[in-house]
Amino acid sequence: MMSDERDQPAPPCDEAGEPQPASVASETAAADLAAVATPADGVGAAPASAEIEDLRRERDDLRDTLLRRRAEFENFRRRTDRERQGWNAEAEAALVKELVPTLDNLEQALKAGADETSLRDGLQLIQRELLATLARLGLAVHDPVGQPFDPLTDQALLHEEVPEAAEGTVVETLRKGYLFKERLLRPAMVKVAKAHSTPESEA
Q1: According to the model, what pLDDT value does residue 171 have?
Q2: CB contact at 8 A, 151 and 131
């Protein structure tokens, strides 16, 4: 028994040398460990604060950059819209200006009060002038008479036997078609020759 008591470590004591209770001893040991694990006041705090401040400045810079880019894009979009509207207005004005002389000639023909022949001649002159004006702008008349039927540019309304025409040939244009700068605006309505019937087929 005596040897066992000597082998046991002495309980911790306070500053006066008096033994401390077990609960107080454990709290003291935990405090000592915390003191070892926790750096001293001010050590490591300054670098962390500086890093946070750098991140805040970077965030503010990125936000300012984003706002500037957004404002620049909005200004660019509005400027582009204004320029496009201006171009459209100029193109429309140029077209109207080209057609004004034709309107003048039509007005003069209607005021003349001439006979039927003179009126017809005047209208034909106006038609030629109008077609010439539209041709300068890129309009082309599509009249496929005598050509093979093309479903891309022609619309067949009638199929008839025509002795002197091969099958599939456009023999009459019922309404002319138009292209604008090689783009189809309206197909031509046509009559197309069909295969000739034979006496055997008629029987």
Answers
A1: 96
A2: no
Question: In this structure, are 30 and 98 located in the same domain?
Answer: yes
- Domain assignment present for residue 85? The answer is yes
User: What's the CA angle centered on 18, arms 3 and 5, to 5 degrees?
Assistant: 10
Please choose, from the candidates 100, 124, 122, the residue with its C-alpha nearest in 3D space to the C-alpha of residue 109: 122
Do residue 152 and residue 131 come from a single domain? Answer: no
Predicted TM-score of the model (pTM)? 0.53
Closest CA to 190 of 152, 139, 163: 152
Q: Cα dihedral sign for 6, 9, 14, 15?
A: positive
Q: What is the CATH number of the domain that holds 127?
A: 3.90.20
Domain of 203: which CATH number? 2.30.22.10
Task: Report whether pLDDT(75) > 70.
Answer: yes
pLDDT at 168: 94
Closest by CA position to 150, among listed 196, 195, 185, 188: 188
Phi and psi based region of residue 43 (left: phi greater than 0; alpha: psi -120 to 50; beta: remaining): beta
Which candidate, 111, 178, 100, places its Cα nearest to that of 140? 178
Range of the domain at 110: 24-137
Would you call 151 helix, strand, or coil by DSSP? coil
In single-letter form, the type of residue at position 164 comes to E
22 contacts 30 by C-beta, under 8 angstroms: no
